Amino acid sequence: KAGVTQTPRYLIKTRGQQVTLSCSPISGHRSVSWYQQTPGQGLQFLFEYFSETQRNKGNFPGRFSGRQFSNSRSEMNVSTLELGDSALYLCASSWDGTVYGYTFGSGTRLTVV
Amino acid sequence: EDKVVQSPLSLVVHEGDTVTLNCSYEVTNFRSLLWYKQEKKAPTFLFMLTSSGIEKKSGRLSSILDKKELFSILNITATQTGDSAVYLCAANTGNQFYFGTGTSLTVIP
Question: Is there a contact between A104 and B42 if contact means CB atoms under 8 Å apart?
Answer without folding.
Answer: yes
